[in-house]
Amino acid sequence: MTTASPEPSRRANLLDFDLEGLAAFCETLGEKRFRATQLFRWIHQRGASGFDQMTDLAKSLRGKLQGAACIQGLSLLTQQESSDGTIKWLFDVGGGNAVESVFIPEDDRGTLCVSSQAGCAVGCRFCSTGHQGFARNLSTAEIVAQLWFAEHFLRKRFNTSDRVISNVVMMGMGEPLQNYSALVPALRTMLDDHGYGLSRRRVTVSTSGVVPMMDRLAQDCPVALAVSLHAPNDVLRDNLVPLNRKYPLAELLDACNRYLEFAPRDFITFEYCMLDGVNDQPEHADQLITLVRHHGARGVSCKLNLIPFNPFPQSGLTRSPHNRVLAFAKRLSDAGIVTTVRKTRGDDIDAACGQLAGDVRDRTRVGERIAQQRTIMLKPVPGAPATKEGNP
Ligand code: SAH
Ligand code: SF4
C-alpha cells in the first residue's frame, strides 16, 4: 500500500532552515547530519527547487524528501526594471498582502534590499510602508526566498554561475528587529559558506531602534548595523519615529555603543531622512554633532547617511532641497563626521527607500493612527521656506 505525500503546506519548507536547522530536520528523517550540507548547497548555491535534480543524493533520501519536504519560493506578482538597472519585484505573501525586494546594481557590488514584514507597526511619519500599517511577520522562508529567487534569477539573466548579489540590506518593508526569530536563521543562511557566503560586513540590518533586540543581535548574529535616526533630539524623534517614545535617544545610543563591541564594522551607520523644514536646519546638524560626539564617555563611532526624502502623497512632507542637503552634509563633515548622501535609485519604478508599498491589509490600524496624527502636524522650523515640490 502506498501512502500519499502530505499536502505541500504540511511539508517542511526547506527555505525555513539555516544549516543547523536543516541538519536537525535530516536527523528526523533518519539521515546523517552531513547530508544537510549537500542539500543546503543544492538549494542555495545551485538554486534547486526540486529533489529530482539532486542526483548525488541517494534515491532513498530523495524519496523521503519528496514525502516530507518542499522548496517553496514566493509567487511573483510583478517585476519592474528601471532605466538605471534597478529591478523591483513584488511578491504575493497570501491573504491579500504583498512585499517587495529591490536589486541595485553598482560597479563594484550588487545589493539586494529585502523585506522582513508585510507592512510595519512602527508607523514612521515619512515612510510609505509605515502608513500602510502592519499585516504580519514574514517567515524565515519568505525572507530567504527573496534572496534565493533574486540571486538565481540574476545568474540566469547575466548567464553566469558566479555570485551576483554581494550585499544584502534589510531595508525593504518592515522592522526586522520586530521579527527577530525569523530574521536570525535567515541571516545565518545568508552568511553560511554553504549558503550565500556573504560577509558579515556586507549584510546590514537596518532598525528604527528596537533596543533589546539590538543587544540580542550582537550576541546571536552580529552583522553590520544601520540605525534610522532621522532626528537629533527626542521631541522631534518622538514625532517622526514613534518607537522613540519607548526607546529614547540616550538609550538607543547606549545600545549602539554596546553593539559596536561585537559588530563586524567599527562604526554604526546612522540614516537620516532629509525632510524639508522639519529636520534639515543648521541647528539640527549642530545638535546631531553634539549628540554623537558627546554621548557617553567617548561618543558613538558612526557614519551619517543622509537620505533625500522620497515623497509619497499621504505623507504631507516634502524633500529637502538639494543645496540644503549638501549644506547639512558639509556641516557634519566639517565637524569630522563621515557623511554621505544616498543616491536615489530606481526613481522611475518607485523603488527608492520608503516607497516600497507592496499592498498590505492593515490589521493594526496604524495607517489610521498616522492619518490622525497628521492633523497635529509638526510646525515647520521658523525661517525655513518649505519648497513647493520638495525638489530643488
Ligand atoms: N524598518 C527599518 C528598515 C526599513 S526602512 C528602519 O526603519 O530602519 C529603510 C530605510 O529607509 C530607513 O532608514 C527608513 O527610515 C528609510 N525611509 C523610510 N521611508 C523613507 C522615505 N520616504 N524616504 C527616504 N527614506 C525613507
Ligand atoms: Fe517601519 Fe522602518 Fe518604515 Fe519606520 S521607516 S515605518 S520602522 S519600515
Mind explaining what this structure looks like?
The chain has 392 residues and is an alpha/beta fold. It folds into two domains: 8-70, DNA polymerase, domain 1, CATH 1.10.150.530; 75-377, Aldolase class I (TIM Barrel, Alpha-Beta Barrel), CATH 3.20.20. Helix content is 33%, strand content 18%. The protein is built from twelve helices and 14 strands. The protein has helices at 19-28, 34-45, 59-68, 128-132, 140-157, 180-191, 211-220, 234-240, 249-260, 282-294, 322-334, 366-374, and strands at 12-13, 69-70, 75-81, 87-92, 98-106, 109-113, 117-119, 134-137, 167-170, 203-207, 224-228, 268-274, 302-308, 339-341. It has a ten-stranded mixed beta sheet with strand order 3-4-5-6-9-10-11-12-13-14. Strands 1-2 form a two-stranded parallel ribbon. α7 links the parallel β10 (203-207) and β11 (224-228). α1 packs across α2 (34-45), α5 (140-157) packs parallel to α6 (180-191) and α10 (282-294) packs parallel to α11. The longest helix is centred in the middle third of the chain and has 18 residues, at 140-157. 46% of the residues are buried. Bound molecules: S-adenosyl-L-homocysteine (SAH) and iron/sulfur cluster. The site of iron/sulfur cluster (SF4) has 11 residues, from α4.
Q: Which SSEs are present, and which pair or pack?
A:
Layout: E1 12-13, H1 19-28, H2 34-45, H3 59-68, E2 69-70, E3 75-81, E4 87-92, E5 98-106, E6 109-113, E7 117-119, H4 128-132, E8 134-137, H5 140-157, E9 167-170, H6 180-191, E10 203-207, H7 211-220, E11 224-228, H8 234-240, H9 249-260, E12 268-274, H10 282-294, E13 302-308, H11 322-334, E14 339-341, H12 366-374
Helix pairs in contact: 1-2, 5-6, 7-9, 10-11
The structure holds S-adenosyl-L-homocysteine and iron/sulfur cluster.
